[in-house]
Amino acid sequence: MNCAEMHPLLHAYTDGELDLVRSLDVEKHLHTCPACATLRNSILSLRSALRSGNLAHPAPPALRERIRRDVAGVNTEPRPRPRERRPWSWQWLMIGAAAGALFMVALPPAGISPGDRLTDDLIAGHVRSLMAGHLTDVVSSDQHTVKPWFNGKLDFAPEVRDLAAQGFPLVGGRLDYLDGRTVAALVYQRNKHFINVFVWPENKPDTARRTELRRGYAVMQWNAGSLHYSVVSDLNEKELGEFADDLRK
Amino acid sequence: MQIMSATDPPAQFDEVVLPHLDAAYNLARWLAGNDHDAEDITQEASLRAFRFFGGFRGGNSRSWLLTIVRHTACTWLKKNRPDAIVPVNEDQLQEIEDPAGPDPSAAFSGADAKVLQTALEQLPAEFREVIVLRELEGLAYKEIADVVDAPLGTVMSRLARARRQLQQCLSRKGDWK
Fold it and tell me: Read out DSSP for B58-109?
């Protein structure tokens, strides 16, 4: 291994992040190359200077107290509704939704149940994701990349599974908005067909999978582990059913 | 896995989140550049962490909190100090480096804290945050990748380039022996 190849590894080696085999390679190289050995020493001395330089700012005690008080205060209030946590840009949507809801209360449309509306919303969400060219916010076929991406963006942790072996490679994930809350959308693919999996928390007992077919789309929904799953695709019902079963395993 | 012995949310929050408040404030302070903004960001992030606490399923509570702090800091700075955010892409980050810089293999000893602090303050935010997370907070590469929402390889190359820039910065100030 030459020095140019060695430099990126030297940082990982010095940080203790290299696997055993490559660590041994680096150690061997360091014995024979004074320039790389000096570089490693400079990484170490920079580190010790940074760590001994009093550069970390501890949290002021008053701030700690303020946060404790805040948290105690929040807790005595009624549990915040999801909508209160949303950034302001959603407020207009909420106003729109509220106006829409009022309209519906005033003129109850015959024969449209909330479940029907959700199915329509799910299909609309699926179609929108394909049309807007905004299928994924994080593009990765690696479940270990997609899952952490949701950290801090949602108040729940969706399970991200790799189903490539079953013929449904993971494409990525994004945030979406459905049924009055921010939800996780996982995107899988079967040949040319995209599959959207919408996930959000719902405190209901686990249910069996139920299927609805509408306008050429199949929508499959179930509850498991206090999460609601909705799978939407233009894939045929049989294959989508296989996908849903793989996802539930 | 964190063991959650207490059942009421504030007590759990005290046990799981507040131990990492120093790390949270330190990251916010280095991203914001002053105490006042850092306090606002940390307070807001802590409240968000508390509200999202139901979504925390054990695991690494420090990375989890730091992810929220970083996210809050970005949003906060964009809203309140848009001039403080200078978006740079990876290519630009590459160009910032001084190709004709001093020999990076020069041994470093005892730059005074003030010089080091200024050098770190002057790093682009993308570099500054990886140095703070790695060298000041001691996070593993994987944890840093989670917090800054970037692939592992990007974290490694940013860290290497951040160190090189710090060393160059310091050597320009004549603190190299």
Answer: SS-HHHHHHHHHHHHHHHHHHHH-GGG-----HHHHHHHS-TT---TTS-B-
Nearest neighbour of A42 by CB, restricted to B14, B105, B136: B105
Gap between the Cα atoms of A203 and A224, Å rounded: 10
CB contact under 8 A, A157 and B106: no
Q: Which site among B35, B39, B78 would you substitute to test the A interface, given the most A Cβ atoms closer than 10 Å to its Cβ? A: B39
pLDDT (average), residues B112-131: 89
CATH code assigned at B125: 1.10.10.10
Report yes or no on B3 lying in a domain. Answer: no
Both B76 and B96 in a single domain?
no
Q: Decide if B25 and A57 are in contact by the 8 Å CB cutoff.
A: yes
Res A155: pLDDT:
81
Q: Indicate whether this complex's ipTM tops 0.85.
A: no
Give the residue numbers spanning the domain of A34: 3-52
Overall average pLDDT of the B18-46 stretch: 94
More confident residue, B3 or A46: A46
CATH number of the domain bearing residue B64: 1.10.1740.10
Average of pLDDT values for B30-46? 94
A149 touches chain B (CB under 8 A): yes
Number of domains in chain A: 3
Tens of pLDDT, residues A30-86: 999 999 999 999 999 899 889 888 899 999 999 999 998 888 776 544 444 444 444
**Going by C-beta distance under 8 Å and a sequence separation of 6 or more, which residues neighbour residue B50?**
A70, A71, A74, B9, B13, B17
Chain A and chain B share a number of CB contacts under 8 A equal to 147
- CB distance from B43 to chain A under 8 Å? yes
| Whether residue A47 is found in the same domain as residue A94 | no
pLDDT at A125 over 90: no
Q: How confident is the model at residue A9 (pLDDT cuts 50, 70, 90)?
A: confident
Q: Does A41 touch chain B (CB under 8 A)?
A: yes
| Whether residue B157 sits in one domain with residue B99 | yes
Sheet holding A193-201, edge to edge: A138-139, A170-178, A181-190, A193-201, A227-233, A217-224, A210-214
- CA nearest B170: which of B91, B80, B92, B106? B106
Look up the domain containing B165 and give its range: 90-172
Total count of residues recorded for chain B:
177
CB proximity under 8 Å: B 78-117 to A:
104-111, 113, 116-117
pTM, entire model: 0.55
Cβ–Cβ gap B55/A156 under 8 Å: yes
